[in-house]
Write a structure and sequence with these properties.
The complex is a heterodimer of chains A (261) and B (308). With 261 residues, chain A is of the alpha/beta class. Chain A has one domain: 3-Layer(aba) Sandwich (Rossmann fold). Helix content of chain A is 32%, strand content 24%. In chain A, helix 3 runs parallel beside helix 5 and helix 5 packs parallel to helix 6. The longest helix of chain A has 17 residues. Chain B is mainly α and 308 residues long. Chain B has one domain. Chain B has a two-stranded antiparallel ribbon with strand order 1-2. In chain B, helix 10 packs across helix 12. Chain B is globular. The chains are: A alpha/beta (261), B mainly alpha (308). The interface between A and B is medium-sized, with 32 and 20 residues.
Amino acid sequence: MLRIEHISKTFNPGTVNEKTAIRDLSLHLKRGDFVTIIGANGAGKSTLFNAIAGSFFCDSGSIFLDGKDITFQPEYRRAKVIGRLFQDPMLGSAPGMTIEENLALAAGRGGWLSHVTREEKTAFRDRLALLNMGLEDRMKQPVGLLSGGQRQALTLMMATMADPKLLLLDEHTAALDPGTAEKVIELTKRIVEEDRLTCLMITHNMQSALDLGNRTLMMDAGNIILDIQGRERDGLTVDDLLQRFRAGVGKAMDNDRMLLS
Amino acid sequence: MTFSAALGLGQTALELGLINSLTVLALFLSYSMLNVCDLSTDGCFTLGACVGAVVAISGHPWLALPAAMAAGIASGFVTAVLQTRMGIESLLAGIIVNTGLYSINIAVMGNSSLLNMNKTVTVFTKAKDLLKDSFLAGQYKLLVALIAVALTILFLSLFLRTRLGLAIRATGNNPDMVRSSSINPAFTTTVGLCIANAFTALSGCLLAQSQKSVNIDIGSGMVTVALASLLIGGTFMGKGSITKRAIGVVLGSFIFRLVYAIALRFHMPASMLKLVSALIVIAAISGPYLKKQAPLIRQRLKHMDRGE
């Protein structure tokens, strides 16, 4: 599905601010994999997402998605098959446009000059009803009126609407209050399962990193230092994870934002 | 002022307001939707006037309209390429194109800065002949302008609801979202600017034909005048559907011209137009900002009083 081969990325090369954010990283994902990623700040988690999504091109190495070489494909091309959510709920939808218009953009069906059809509108409503947030009755309202949680849920809906091959979730519940965050996580789980999406999710919540998905990666200094899946992962506790991190890196997990519970 | 004089005043304002409102609608697309302040508007307006005049003088009054629009599209395309493919700031790109257009406009008019169309057949004289015996005989200018504006509004309100139109609106509304989406902002910006400039040029073309002359300064300050109209229109119908907002900006353009016509009537020098439009733009844009600051200023004043 997704094959990353020996990619590296150095920012500001040749200056005092030189930083190697990704170092000779390789990763292979199977179709339907739901992978959670943990790691300290600056470990390169978001940079890895940026590399996959095409926010920048890698200095070396190659990336294949579904057998296709996308190493130098521009971001907007990749976005057709890669859905992405950020921590900031404001980044995923246009506040001045209505819910319906946002969904129409995300659905991406039809030609450039096509209008949204009545059937599509009904389909949007039905899909929004799944959120259980009453948004289906507010189709004509601008998205700017929604709360952060509602907006993130809508963004999740938008990102998964055009049947992406890969879904990237970059701490997409970190800016939400605990109750809403839980709701969005539940929703994520359901959508990923129902649509059988291949998904990568960065989280700072170690427990949900173990609870969700079928594989967990731990990153440090621009590379993957732990890759746990299958039977090895079943029954693993947060303490085990921390211990293995210490063993792997030679220092304790240092991150004030990490939720250990 | 007699009734007929007032009526005449209103009619002139309506005619000019409608013709100018095409430029305002262009800014509605580029400034309000795409969030690009297109400073090539002045030059593009003149370009449309020049191209339209030259084509009309050569005996093709109808062809003048699409010719002017095509010139506008070309101008908008250059502005867009400068800012999306060559790393030039969007404001600067507009200024550069505007400067370049000055020479081009002179060249279009055959190395002259003035063209006279007194004996030229224009779309307006055509309409005048057509309506000669009807009850609308006196309103031929109004009618031509009205048709142009109605078609433009119809086009905009249909276009902005297509997928491309939505993508253009999203590009202006949330660039962050667009950057990580399947919309290519370079493409949407280019399409938006091309369409907007087509209307700006059409506006210039119609003004030149209605006043039967072009000079190189016909478009100077147009961007400020149009922005003023746009902002006035926004205060009337700033919210609601695209169609409603588009009609609102046309109304804004008319009100602006009406106020200006009344001021002229009371012996304001004609040269004051640009100062007035500059002041309106300042007031309309700074107003909401200053209003937000007012409580803070009051608080600080109170604080200072207590200190003494």
